[in-house]
Write a structure and sequence with these properties.
By secondary structure, the chain is α+β, with helices and mostly antiparallel strands. It has helices spanning 2-28, 57-66, 83-92, 95-102, 119-131, 155-161, 265-274, and strands at 46-48, 53-55, 73-75, 171-173, 176-190, 202-208, 211-214, 225-235, 241-247, 255-262, 283-288, 300-305, 308-316, 324-332.
């Protein structure tokens, strides 16, 4: 009986391995996976299991040099794959899906290497794409200072994870699924615009989807201090928070005193990548980069502070003659 049981177990294990390999090969023969994700060389036989792309032998060598914390390279035909590795590849969906994220923004003057590119050209592009994350939307870049063994999932993989919803961490309200809560502490304003005779009576309004929250009105003050906490539920696939500052008027419509958009993807992506922030010491885990098309006065870092994920923002109000605003974001998982 013992020998027969062992034989049955062995046959079952072999069967599941064969099924897994068949699923992987079915994915490989899809049109977008018939060329290397990085140089378009035909018939790739290698893959980065944690990034979710099929690559050629030449690009495989560069991926190996990045280290397994960024790219775990396996042969489609020669290596043994775990169920988790196969599921990860299938979940990503292959080269087209992955490249829509990792090559979302390739600056002018930079092009993908050709199949006959030199090792130097290939290496520079692949490092820029996965290690430095230079071709992602700025809001999706994660700047992590930790490469501990507990964080061996690559940064690239963490970015992919941020686009997936987990049924264990989502709650719904009607047809809207929420992934967490965001506490926005409106700290203070500086040099706000004059909308009355000599001053203004400012207040701040935050809008996210159908939700709105606003601070109290501060009378006759161009440098108001609020220190007020506003809480917004964060739906899946949400856009930025729209921030507006108004001057309160008793007998007429309130005047606009500037506006800005707050990209909350950096704090969401970073928080989800690290999971339970209470397991880590104080550290920087992400960044929203200042650019010409956002309202940041300087780069804004996402940090774990005393077991909480927080982000400080300094914004220059737009569509107005003057005014700056300081805020602090705090991510709150649904379990809290």
């Amino acid at each position: 009986m013992g020998a027969m049981y062992k034989q049955i177990v062995t046959l079952s294990f072999s069967f599941f391995l064969a099924v897994g390999k068949r699923r992987l090969k079915d994915l490989l023969v899809q049109r977008d996976n018939r060329v290397c994700a990085d140089c378009n060389a035909p018939d790739p036989k290698w893959a980065s299991a944690n990034i979710g792309v099929f690559i050629c032998l030449k690009c495989c060598g560069v991926h190996r040099s990045l280290g397994t914390h960024i790219s775990k390279v396996l042969s489609v035909t020669l290596d043994e794959w775990s169920d988790d590795e196969i599921e990860s590849m299938i979940e990503v969906g292959g080269n087209a899906s992955a490249n829509s994220i990792y090559e979302a923004y390739i600056p002018e003057g930079i092009s993908k290497p050709r199949p006959d590119a030199s090792h130097e050209q290939r290496s520079k592009f692949i490092r820029s794409k996965y290690e430095l994350q230079e071709f992602l939307k700025p809001s999706l870049r994660i700047a992590s200072t930790s490469k501990k063994s507990s964080l061996q999932v690559s940064l690239s993989r963490k970015i992919m994870d941020s686009f997936r919803s987990s049924s264990s961490t989502q709650k719904s309200d009607g047809m809207v699924e929420f992934i967490g809560m965001l506490k926005v502490k409106v700290l203070k304003g500086t040099k706000l615009a004059i909308r009355d005779m000599l001053s203004s009576d400012p207040y701040v309004v935050l809008t996210l989807g159908q939700q709105k929250a606003q601070t109290t009105v501060v009378k006759s003050n161009l440098n108001p201090v609020w220190n007020e906490e506003l809480v917004l539920s964060v739906p899946q696939n949400c856009g930025p928070i729209k921030l507006q500052v108004f001057d309160y008027d008793t007998f007429s419509a309130d005047d606009i005193m500037g506006e800005a958009e707050i990209d909350i993807q950096p704090i969401i992506t970073s928080a989800m990548a690290f999971g339970d922030a209470g397991m880590f010491g104080n550290m920087q885990i992400g960044k929203w980069l200042k650019s010409h098309d956002n309202a940041l006065i300087e780069d804004s870092t996402v940090n774990i502070v005393d077991g909480k994920v927080k982000q400080e923002l300094s914004l220059k109000l737009q569509n107005v003659e003057s005014g700056e605003l300081e805020l602090e974001l705090e991510w709150m998982p649904l379990e809290q």
